[in-house]
Amino acid sequence: MKRPGSSPGSMNLPLPAIGVSSGLGPFAAIAISMIAITIVVLGLVLRTERGPPLLTQMLLALAVLLGGTVLLLALLFIFIDSDGTTAWTWVLVAFNFMMMVPLGLWFIGLIVFRDRRVSPRAWAWPVSLGVTVTGSEALMGVLFAYGGANGTLSVVATFGLGLSSIWFFWSMAAVMTALTVWAPQPAAGRAGALALTLASVVAPWVTAYPIVGVLAMSVVMVGWFAMLARLLRLRRIVPGEASLVAWISVAFLAMGAAGALVAATGGSMLAATVFGTVMGLAMIGEVAYLVRACYGGPVVRPWTEGVPGADPGASAPPPVPRTAVEPRS
Fold it and tell me: How far is 151 from 86, CA to CA, in rounded Å?
């Protein structure tokens, strides 16, 4: 899975290939636009000061993201189907789906849900958005892996190249960076989100140049555990963060083991598929956590609303005890 070598005498930098030929230029433009749309849609729905978003807003956001997934499937079908006319017909159908179906679901949601809001404690909507976003970006990686190949790829090779593609990891890094900036989080949660985002940035090197990638991933993992030790020493871990800290630590150990498997097998396609799957599961969890933190997490100011002198790791103030029961009307 290493990048082809350059000409003699030139500097061969260990950089993972982007995998975009001139023929894939229009597909790259569509993919970049879809990444931007994903960030904008999540920002419009989650960045609210009125508490959890409306159910209709979440339904609309999920429909738009699913529409993007349908479009990516249609674009992939262009390379699978030898009949170009039929393939491009499906692309037009996918565009129509993106334009009409979300609006239709929104109108239905207005009738069914009215002004009901998402439960701040429930995980169904955050996990749904995490699976949809991560699945869409993984499909984007598969699209460029299959479309940029010289010839037909096997199923394992397609997923191995797709799940280790820059288009998968870096598009997820862009989404997770935006969510990390928006979501109010205590110190440990923000450090973990940053560490997992940085892991997705260096992940393409694990399969393109296994030794370089594993070393980079090890540096990120050591940095997380060093930060965790510091937070524990300073007693900056709030009681509700114990399960989150444990999950992030287990995720890093699993990613490290999967990266070591890639290095041990010399970058085999099967090992790359396993590594990409492990990374994908970790990113689903991070997106779900950040989405929920945007409207249901602890009361901690996000970076965009920082106050000079304030403690960035301060936890939520204790709830005021009830002294009386509100009488029934």
Answer: 21
Residue 64: Cβ within 10 Å count = 22
Q: Which of 50-64, 216-230, 277-291, 294-308 has the lowest mean pLDDT?
A: 294-308
Of the ranges 80-89, 181-190, 268-277, which one carries the lowest mean pLDDT score?
80-89
The tokens for 130 are: 């995490």
Closest among 201, 165, 205 to 19, alpha carbons compared: 165
Residue 51: burial class (beta carbons within 10 Å; 0-12, 13-18, 19+): exposed
Among 203, 181, 210, 209, smallest CA distance to 193 is for 181
Name beta bridge partners: 117: 54
- CA pair distance 321, 20, nearest whole angstrom: 59
The count of domains in the chain is: 1
Note whether residue 319 is domain-resident: no
Report the 10 Å Cβ neighbour count for 89. Answer: 14
Phi, psi of 151 (to 5 degrees): 115, -175
Domain membership of residue 217 as a residue range: 26-302
Token pair in block for residue 138: 């993984």
- Which among 163, 267, 270, 277 is positioned nearest to 206, based on CA atoms? 267
Identify whether 325 is part of a domain: no
State the pLDDT at residue 1. 53
pLDDT in tens, 143-156: 888 887 776 788 88
4: in domain: no
Do 113 and 59 touch, CB atoms closer than 8 A? yes
Q: Does residue 20 sit within a domain?
A: no
Contacts with 239 (C-beta within 8 Å, 6 or more apart), sequence order = none
- Cα 65 to Cα 28, 34, 130, 167, 288: the distances in Å are 18, 9, 11, 17, 15
